[in-house]
Amino acid sequence: MNRYPEKIAAIIESAEHFVEFDGDSSGISGDFSCGVAVAFEVAIDESTTRINRIGFQTAGCGYVVAAAETVAGYMKGRTLRSCGGGLPNYEKLLELLGEVPESREHCYKIVIEALVQTIRNYRIQKSDLWDGDEALVCSCFGVSEQDIQTAMSECNADSTTEVGKLTRAGLGCGSCLPVIEDILKAVEQIGS
């Protein structure tokens, strides 16, 4: 008899993303109650912010392996924008994998924490590389406030969609969209 539910056992058996490689960003999370840790590594296409490759490492139990494999499969091929605020969460893992024993809930949660840390680290790395004099608005594509204002004044961009087409701002993870909207409103008020 297998110690894991059939679905979890099948995922463990067929895990493809349980690999180590040198990617663009990594993140790790752990739980001291059982001594488990999980780390993700991603390779992201700079021009599209598409996750081309994702892998994980863990010495954790089968629940951690199944959760990490499921998350990796879910994320591979997605752009950061398509994820936006929609990174898989605990409820999504429950939906994809089924119920988990209460004593193993932390296994799913640390996987989510490691993924969030990986994406956060990618954005921090992009911000750290910024060497412009103006305020950086879009860390995914290195777009400054001045770039957005130029797109607005020279190309008559008056929506986040148009700004995105011209500068790519807002087309990565999407977290800068509220700032772009604020810039649009401020410039509109000045022009009125």
Rg value:
20 Å
Number of helices: 8
The average pLDDT value, as a whole number, equals: 87
Portion in strands: 15-25%
SSE layout and pairing:
Elements: H1 6-13, E1 25-31, E2 36-44, E3 51-58, H2 62-75, H3 80-83, H4 90-97, H5 105-128, E4 136-138, E5 143-144, H6 145-155, H7 160-167, H8 177-191
Antiparallel strand pairs: 1-2, 2-3, 4-5
Helix pairs in contact: 1-2, 2-5, 6-8
A few lines on this structure:
The protein has about 190 residues and is an alpha+beta fold. The chain has helices at about 5-15, 60-75, 80-85, 90-95, 105-130, 145-155, 160-165, 175-190, and strands spanning about 25-30, 35-45, 50-60, 135-140, 145. The strands form two sheets. A three-stranded antiparallel sheet has the order 1-2-3.
Task: Explain what the structure shows.
With 192 residues, the chain is of the alpha+beta class. The protein is elongated and about 70 Å long. The protein has helices at residues 6-13, 62-75, 80-83, 90-97, 105-128, 145-155, 160-167, 177-191, and strands at 25-31, 36-44, 51-58, 136-138, 143-144. A three-stranded antiparallel sheet has the order 1-2-3. It has a two-stranded antiparallel ribbon with strand order 4-5.
